[in-house]
Amino acid sequence: MLHLIGITGCYNEEMIGLFLITHATYGESLIQCACHVLNKRPLQIAQLGVSLQDDPLDLLPLARDMLKLVDAGDGVLIMTDLYGATPSNITSKLLIPGHVEGLAGVNLPMLLRALTYRDKGMDTLLTRAIAGGRDGVLNITDH
């Protein structure tokens, strides 16, 4: 089953679009959590959920169309959950170095960092999103 979440069509100047391609409803859940944390719906963001019965070849044209919807000309960062799985394989077919980049291992800290830095250019966005995802993994202690 294909899961989509609405795409907000308003564009700000120099803002990189975000596109999550994930298993099932994971991307939708991350976006909903980000909306909760930010207390607003971010602009230029979309998600495509891939289910077990979906044929990746059928999803590729849809993914290309969704990519265009979030790209206002400044590029798109695609984030996927698990490297080497179907969502990341779809992502790899959409990449255009410097304009459409992809990251695997998306989590909420990575998404929040991406939302914060997407007006700073692709190189900064990639660096900060990766750091956010990595730095968001912590051992919780009581000290």
Secondary-structure element sequence?
Answer: EEHEHEHEHH
The overall strand count is: 5
Strand content: 15-25%
Overall CATH architecture: 3-Layer(aba) Sandwich
Q: If you compute it from the alpha carbons, what radius of gyration comes out, rounded to the nearest whole angstrom?
A: 14 Å
Amino- and carboxy-terminal Cα gap: 45 Å
The coarse silhouette is globular
CATH topology: Rossmann fold
Kindly report the average pLDDT value.
Answer: 92
User: Which structural class do you get from the secondary structure elements?
Assistant: alpha/beta
Describe the largest sheet.
5 strands, mixed
Outline the structure in words:
The protein has one domain: 3-Layer(aba) Sandwich (Rossmann fold), CATH 3.40.50.510. A 5-stranded mixed beta sheet has the order 1-3-2-4-5, sandwiched between helices. Strand 4, helix 3 (86-92) and strand 5 form a beta-alpha-beta unit. With 143 residues, the chain is an alpha/beta fold. Residues 1-9 have low confidence and may be disordered. Helix 2 crosses helix 3 and helix 4 (108-117) packs antiparallel against helix 5. It has 5 helices and 5 strands; from the N terminus they run E-E-H-E-H-E-H-E-H-H. It is globular and about 50 Å long.
